[in-house]
Inverse folding.
């Protein structure tokens, strides 16, 4: 006895990766990286800049450069390591890119003493 099957939903022609592509703009990856750096570094120092990121994406991998300001005194190595780990994890998680390198450059150290002296006018 033959069984009649009702037509079901059409079947996909193959795995999803073979049916299309997703392109994520470099500036989107840079925004993800900058936000992740903010999360890891904490609030920007008074008078300092928020972290900024630039990226180079090639196929499914990225190289990321982050610049940031830190308060003084700070354990610069520990803070930069935390930024590096957070940026790598968030970009891999949210953009699906393999991160080969995260370079962190500290542009300035801001101390309470320099903030106080910047507020005063110098007399020659």
């Amino acid at each position: 006895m033959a069984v009649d099957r009702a037509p079901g939903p059409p079947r996909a022609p193959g795995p999803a990766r073979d049916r299309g592509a997703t392109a994520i703009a470099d500036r989107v990856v840079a925004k993800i990286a900058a936000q992740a750096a903010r999360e890891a570094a904490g609030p920007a120092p008074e008078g300092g800049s928020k972290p900024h990121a630039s990226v180079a994406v090639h196929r499914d991998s990225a190289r990321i450069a982050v610049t940031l300001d830190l308060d003084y005194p700070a354990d610069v190595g520990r803070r930069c390591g935390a930024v590096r780990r957070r940026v790598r994890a968030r970009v891999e998680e949210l953009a699906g890119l393999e991160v080969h390198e995260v370079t962190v450059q500290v542009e300035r150290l801001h101390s309470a003493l320099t903030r106080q002296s910047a507020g005063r006018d110098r007399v020659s």
In short: The chain has a mean pLDDT of 86. DSSP finds three helices and three strands in the chain. Helices lie at 26-41, 76-95, 112-118.
